[in-house]
Design goal:
Layout (H helix, E strand, L loop, with lengths): L19 H13 L5 E7 L2 E7 L3 E4 L1 H8 L3 H12 L6 E5 L4 E5 L2 H4 L36 H10 L4 H10 L10 H4 L7 H14 L3 H9 L9 H9 L7
Helix pairs in contact: 8-10
Length: 242
């Protein structure tokens, strides 16, 4: 990753500098932001989409952030939401059902070396930053085909711990330490709204979502297409042969 950033000395007196985790996350945000307009290709499900990114913006991914920062996703989410709050006023977040874009507030002021005036609350100043999209780690938890989708859904859930646990379970925190690739390559993945419905079904029929996911991943007799509809079916009393 090329390029450099500038930090103003006033960061020493800031709320961010007072907390080492917040400082690490904030510097990471600055380094991820684009210094120019660009178009980025993203994998969405089995297809691809092109995302327009302006200067001072980057595509936020919870899984990528966890891997690069070595910080738990719930902690990252907490600080990202604080950065967005009126108290900090450091970023804005634009989320849809596929990905989230973070914009650094007043980005243009960070690109002007001659101006001493700072307009954003006690932020470190970024002069040149690179936006080369990080290559996914292809050695262990690879092929996160729906990574951007689930990142956006976790944001929509306001970091619901049960849903976050479910997503982590799908991507490797499941006892076998590998993603459930067969399920993650199905159509109709399980967003937060669908997860809430699955919880209702599991409570009604006294079944367990994570156990059912594990059973479905290991089931080889049928080729199911919809992850969500299959889960709905398997969580109900079984009137079909597995």
């Amino acid at each position: 990753m090329d390029g450099s950033i500038k930090l103003h000395r006033r960061i020493l007196d800031s709320q961010v500098f007072a907390h080492q985790t917040a400082l690490k996350i904030w510097v990471w945000c600055l380094c991820k932001a684009s210094f120019k307009e660009r178009y980025i290709s993203l994998k969405i499900g089995k297809g691809e989409t092109t995302v327009h990114v302006n200067p001072g913006q980057f595509i936020f991914g919870r899984f990528t952030a966890e891997e690069e920062l070595g910080i738990d996703g719930s902690t990252i989410y907490k600080w990202i939401k604080k950065f967005e709050s009126p108290e900090y006023d450091m970023i804005t977040i634009d989320s849809n059902n596929q990905y989230s874009i973070i914009s650094i507030s007043n980005w243009s002021s960070y690109q002007i070396e001659d101006k001493p005036k700072r307009t954003t609350k006690e932020q470190p100043k970024n002069n040149q930053v690179t936006t080369e999209e990080q290559q996914r780690n292809t050695n262990n938890k690879v092929n996160k085909v729906y990574n951007e989708y689930y990142d956006a859904e976790i944001f929509k859930s306001q970091d619901d711990p049960e849903y976050a646990k479910f997503v982590k379970f799908l991507f490797g925190e499941n006892g076998i330490e590998r993603p459930f690739k067969k399920l993650l390559n199905m159509e109709d993945q399980i967003g937060y709204k669908q997860f809430v419905e699955l919880k209702r079904i599991s409570e009604e029929h006294k079944t367990k979502i994570l156990d059912t996911v594990r059973q479905l991943e290991n089931y080889n007799k049928k080729n199911y297409t919809s992850f969500y509809l299959t889960m709905c079916n398997w969580l109900k009393p079984k009137d079909h042969v597995r």
